[in-house]
Hints:
- The protein is of the alpha+beta class.
- It has one domain: NADH Oxidase.
- It has seven helices and four strands, in the order ααβαααβαβαβ.
- A four-stranded antiparallel sheet has the order 1-2-4-3, sandwiched between helices.
- The protein starts with 9 loop residues before the first helix and ends in a 26-residue tail after the last strand.
- The site of flavin mononucleotide has 12 residues, from strand 3.
- Flavin mononucleotide binds near residues 19, 171, 172 and 196.
Amino acid sequence: MRDSIEAGPPFFSVLGSRRSVRGFLPEEVPARTLEAIFVAAQQAPSWCNIQPWRVWVTRGEQTRAVVAALTHAVDTEAPAPDFAWPSEYPEPYHRHRRECGLALYSAMDVARDDRAARHEAWMRNFQAFDAPHIALVAIDRRFNHYAMLDLGCWLQSLLLSAFAQGVSTCPEASLATFPGAVRGLLGIPDELGLVMGIALGYEDPTVKANGCRTARAPLDANVRFVG
Ligand SMILES: Cc1cc2nc3c(=O)[nH]c(=O)nc-3n(C[C@H](O)[C@H](O)[C@H](O)COP(=O)(O)O)c2cc1C
């Protein structure tokens, strides 16, 4: 029981049931529902309540334009994220990362040595897994890691609010690989750095990738109760 969140208030089951979805139906989320989700996420805490998240949410033609720009950039540009990606994953993070990849590729029936299929799977990131909506998330470049913490609080609030409304999500750092491709398209000012994107929409249960389930380490790997 110590590592389980089955027991507890209904909110615990929201926490335990949300997962990343990597295959969406084309049906758009009604504008009012989408807005309600983002209004709820506005309640996220932040350092001195500075609320540093700046977000562009697409639908329809704008989603298609972002996907077209990103998939073109993958073929023609070198990755140039505004915020550097981790350069190494020492243990135990490397193991967690490998297990995450294995869970996804095995759900997709992609063999470890099938480079073409792995490339195809990687490319799905830039198609936002066919989601009808993409939220692109930026932050003032002058801030440091504390504003990133604020953004993390907002992100989880958004993911859970969406889930509670029956809307699936996939947070995607990959959508920030080519900021130059989307900055002009959406009018993101230069003083903001692109941190990530979030695919939003209704889950397509027939997509194999959506069978992926990730595990969590036992509590004592992360938390010590002292005294
Ligand atoms: C900041 C952040 C960036 C992520 N970037 C990606 C991404 O680019 N592509 C992807 O498929 N999943 C991405 N994910 C999803 C994680 O792989 C996923 O949250 C993790 O494996 C745990 O699985 P779960 O969300 O289903 O619980 C990202 C998650 C976070 C929080």
